[in-house]
Amino acid sequence: MPSNPRLVEALFRLLPYVEDENDEAKAASAGISMSDLLARLAAEFDPKPNERTVRRALGDMSELVSHVGHTRGARWFKTSANPLLRDERTMSANLAIALCALNRVAARQLPAVVLADLQPYFERATATLALERNNERAKRGRSWASKTLRIDSTQPVLPPPVDAGVYQAVTQGLLYDLKLSFRNRPAGQTEPGERVYRMSPLALVDRGGVLYLIAWGPDSPGNQFMFRMDRLSDVRVLSEPADQDPAFDLTKYVETESKFHFMPEPEVELRLRVYESANGEQGRRSSHMLREFRLSSDQGPVEEGENHSFVLTARVKPSVMLRQFLHSHSDSIEILAPQSLRDEFAQRARNLLKRYDDASVVR
Description:
Residues 267-353 form the WCX domain. By secondary structure, the chain is of the alpha+beta class. It has helices spanning 5-14, 24-30, 34-42, 51-60, 93-105, 112-131, 136-144, 164-176, 250-256, 320-328, 339-357, and strands at 45-46, 65-68, 75-78, 148-151, 178-184, 197-207, 210-216, 225-228, 232-241, 268-275, 303-304, 309-316, 333-337.
């Protein structure tokens, strides 16, 4: 029976690299003992693999790993630094997954000439995952695109860092469809809570650099929970298969989950008067961004007005994000309706005027 692919990948990652395995002194110095290797694996696997299973996996990896010494005195190491590219004639499932992920985001990250050169590799990667129908890694690779999503940020702030071990464990659970156990630090607290969660990971969302884990547990079937990755600790990948939710759709979840939109309110008809400034070249009026970007899919056509302005109407849900956008363009956007939102921004304007018009507070 082939070795567990997750165990094989963990072994290759944990073993130190030795360039010249014939230099036994260097190999012995760089290599690690079986007991150390088992201890490192125990930190990632629950239950931990036994020594017999690990030795069988190392035997299956004989082209990539080696050892010096015998029995308890043996020191293990890897002899290849890059297994993904060791055979130019074939493409591994892992490399295919990486290239397909790159293809999804590369359009706005790489020059066109580079993309053109990479296109054959993208096509080859897609074909690799499609053709290897019975390859477990290929199956996971085909499903990976539906498990990750990025939502760009418009805020000039630095996102909180995520511990590398937390990220590794969460993505392993997602990729291999295994349950996770973890602790969560509640908002405003400095220490994690006492509760240990055991949940099935569903997706990972990157919203402006802040990573969120979407998961669900046996106590609330059908209900998804969102955890900020930087607040997680003691994350372990369990051996128990994750509970699948065939009805879960990541795109629809993000569109409807209120936490991603920061406290949205009931939908209203928003009516704005937008003024275009004379900051263009040679004194020409510069086009306002709302001539090109829509606030909703059913937004009506703009109505041209006086003084280089236009009026637009859209059905939207007032939220923190919408208010931040309107406030950032408050010198060029006037809220006409609803009246409650107009009154709110009028009070904001009065507060701003009071603070900026009071010379006595300047220090």
